[in-house]
Amino acid sequence: MEKFSEQKNKFDDVLPENTRKTFVPQVKVSREIKLAPPRYRNEIAKYIIRRSDDDCIRCGKCVNVCPYDVHVLKPGYKYFASAQSHFCKGPGCEKTDHYCVALCPQGALRMVENPMMRALGDFRWTADMILATWKMATTGDSPSEDYGFDYQCGDSGGGFDRLRFKFPDKPDVALNEDDIDIGIELNRRNDRRPCIRIDVPWYGGGMSFGSVSNVTQLAKVRGAAAWNTFSCTGEGGYMERMKPYDDYMITQVATGLFGIREETIQRVRIVEFKYAQGAKPGLGGHLLGDKNTQAVARMREAVVGIPLFSPFPFHSVYSIEDHMKHIDWIKHINRRALVSTKVSTPTDVDMVAIGSCAAGTHIIHLDGAYGGTGAAPDIAKKNIAIPIEYAISKVHDFLTSEGVRGKVTLMASGGVRTAHDVAKAIALGADGVVIGTAELVALGCVRCSRCESGRGCPRGIATTDIELAAKMSVEWATQRIINLYNAWRKELIGILLRFGMRSITELRGRTDLLIHLDFSNDNMQKT
Amino acid sequence: MPKKYHINTTPVPPRLPRIGKHGIVDWREDCARCHNCVKKACVYDRHRQETEYIRNLKDVDDLFFDCMGCFSCVQDCTKGLLSLTINPVYEQLGNNYWTPDIILSTWLQAETGKVPVSGAGYKGKFSGPGFDSMWTDMSEIVRPTRDGIHGREYISTSVDLGRKPAVLSFDEKNLVTAQPPLISLPLPLIIDNRPHGYRLPKLEPIFVETAARTGLISILDADQWPLENIDEDRHLPHVAFFLRPDSPGVPREVLKKTKLVEIADHDGVITWIKKLKDMHPDLVAAVRLKLDSHGVERAVALAQEETMEVIHVVADLNGNEIGAENPRFIKDMIRQIHTTLIEIGKRDEVTIMAGGGIALAEHMAKAIICGADLVTTNLPFMIALECHLCDSCETGFSCPAKLEDIPFDYSVGRMTNLVSAWHLQLIEVMGAMGMREARRLRGDVGRAMFFEELEEQIFGKIFGTKK
């Protein structure tokens, strides 16, 4: 594949000076991995230790033998404090010499699976997946196998959850982690616009101020800045506090045009047209009145408390030619920007993609049917448009057969939950992915689905309520996202190491490396 | 433009304690009585509500299950005394087809009359049996589309019932083809006869009133006539009597005020229809046909009868072929009937109503895409009245939803709300598809994607044969 990064970017010299109207000093965010402990007192654990108070003689042996500080007997206290079960390694500890249950002289301890696991998570985001993501966000590393988390796949029974990688016993090439590059190029057109390269094959999806708090938005973009990737404004305007991170923001132009100004288009390196979204394909956007607070209304130039609709579709676009006009408009306003086109996944998504490619987009962003972070009608979330796994294959194959696959970057979203999903999406044909829910889970989301009304998210993530939003600090939230990204990066590198690949780009379209558990897998072809 | 179909709704709260999905288990005996108790911080104020609820408890086993499942109190309690659990009563609701989630969603719609909305994306299975194995399409950049849900353009959900002539003939001035009677319904939905266990005398006037308020039709077993408190002129146009060979006769003057009548399929059904039409030429006659192993063939055969106007095909309550060991699902049987009728050139002449397994508004849209003109359903209306589908009534036990004491206004309000919510959801999916008319949705499988086909087309060429 052509290496765009090798082309020296000298476009700053030829771009008109007025292309970028604002010059806010850009802030660097360190990529350093630091511990970011959960913000709740009682972290949910997969396994818990039950102590029989009748049998326990409070000898403290469990405290002494456990290297993970699960048992807490504070100095001067007669009784044990609540066990920190989330540190417990679970049954993996049984074979060690520090298994508290076996070592307790009174047999007062027993380990059980936490019954609350049933109440956490769902088919797509299992409880294991949520807890594992929390661990990643805490430590910056994948959870040890000892924890017993089955987090690489969900339990949906289809798509990514039925795909597995077919790893060779031994890679053809023995590589070190440092040899492996998981960055991707976003401009493949060679059109004298900047060659933007991101260091990880994903960026953050659009979540508007209104749908999420300003803390969440800011943390997302700071995490993106740390990893030299992007985050997206969503359709809710461009917060003043975002300006120090302009270089890592994507301005989204959606149908309601809330908060869109010439200036917000000119200050960024990527502008995204959102035609549709996976959570509610074909239905536009809807911010419920409760979440339209004073700050949100000011940003969107709307009236406080009034529900805000983004109509579907762009009423100025009824053809690919109209779409081309949109793209030309952005390209003329901002001569240094790449244009991304976010579409959902109808049955003719391949035709949409080729049309958008012909119209001059740099990035085609497919948002599959099962994605989405914000409020959406249940009937739309479940039933409209096809899951992203199908759409990626369909679009990749069609663009390849039309001979234009090398001219456009294909990003996929809608149900990408783990690094393994990222790798599978790429193996199916995407260049990279766009993530949303995973970032929110890293911040402590339990997917209770209550983001849509009233004061919004009770955990302070998807809310505009000042009191609830104050439950997180920007620094903590940023670190959680940085840590999550690092854990994913490591997992991706681990996958590439096993395949002996030096670059994530080598994995693109390698469906021959995948197996589907519901198929015979006797027709393995490289696409 | 016809008058826009609109249903007036008002919230109708449940009569009985709510059955939520989650509940908090609280080990109170170890509580430190700290001043920053997490219960006070509940965003939804549920802990205070629970305290009040318990104070006024009517039955000792009426537990409070209205937790929203956010884990905030569970994770923040200083002593870690709280746990979140799945409500066991919730898990016992319904059955494998009529899942607890369907029942909870229906209760919400019956209470609010609104489209259920939630955040955090889709949480269910990738695909599933029955209607869950298909997705509806949406229009993207390249297709003109509509902005229906926000009122910019009118999306019509009206459908017609009756026989339509294949061609129209004119003499020099006038139309000479006979015009069979045609009923226009504002929504492709008919309230079907209730299964035996659910037939309470008190309920029938409620169904009829709901049909009158929403402009729909409710099917009523002929042996349940006469009903109490019925305004014949207002209600009878919204009643379709179901007649079996052994049914008592419905008075002629009563039948005359109805628009639709349904006759059980039997050997003499065609003769019976002819007799009925001789007496009541303006009445549309439907034949109710069980979708058993001969159902599809029988539907196709009936459709070729010149007198046939409407065929009502009915699967079992879960949408399965009746009496089959490996039953086909109703969507597949509808597709088969629909495509066969197209092949023999009869599809546009008869109306196909499909019932059995229609549990959600999405099933209405999907059944129509598969080829039905409209659907019939009954259990969702029972669920709207807080029925658990526990079958206690079948076995003679007392009804947990206390249906025998049900208030009239409450019941009609809940059912009306449900119809409104289904109407709004149909508009949602049609708006996404760029469809302006429910009539045009019929059999338009190009507006749907089927799991089996996508797997074969997309994954089949990569991964070989499906196991």
CATH level-1 class of the largest domain in chain B: Alpha Beta
Strand content of chain A is 5-15%
Which fold name fills CATH's third level, the topology of the largest domain in chain B? TIM Barrel
**End-to-end distance of chain B:** 52 Å
Q: Name the assembly state.
A: heterodimer
Task: Give the DSSP E fraction of chain B (strand runs of 2 or more residues).
Answer: 5-15%
Q: Can you tell me the CATH architecture of the largest domain in chain B? A: Alpha-Beta Barrel
How many structurally independent domains of chain B? 2
Q: CATH superfamily membership of the largest domain in chain A, which one?
A: Aldolase class I
Low-confidence runs of at least 5 consecutive residues of chain A: 1-11
* Cross-sheet strand order for the largest sheet of chain B: 7-14-13-12-11-10-9-8
Structural class by SSE content of chain B: alpha/beta
Low-confidence stretches of chain B: none
Would you mind describing this structure in some detail?
The complex is a heterodimer of chains A (527) and B (467). By secondary structure, chain A is of the alpha/beta class. Chain A has two domains: 11-33 and 174-516, TIM Barrel; 47-113, 2-Layer Sandwich (Alpha-Beta Plaits), CATH 3.30.70.20. Chain A has helices at residues 11-14, 61-65, 100-103, 127-139, 214-226, 262-266, 294-300, 320-333, 349-359, 378-383, 388-401, 419-428, 437-442, 466-469, 474-499; strands at 47-51, 109-113, 163-165, 184-185, 197-198, 202-204, 231-232, 249-253, 270-274, 285-287, 308-310, 338-343, 363-367, 376-377, 409-413, 432-435, 514-516. The longest helix of chain A has 26 residues, at 474-499. By secondary structure, chain B is of the alpha/beta class. Chain B is built from 16 helices and 15 strands. The interface between A and B is large, with 106 and 77 residues.
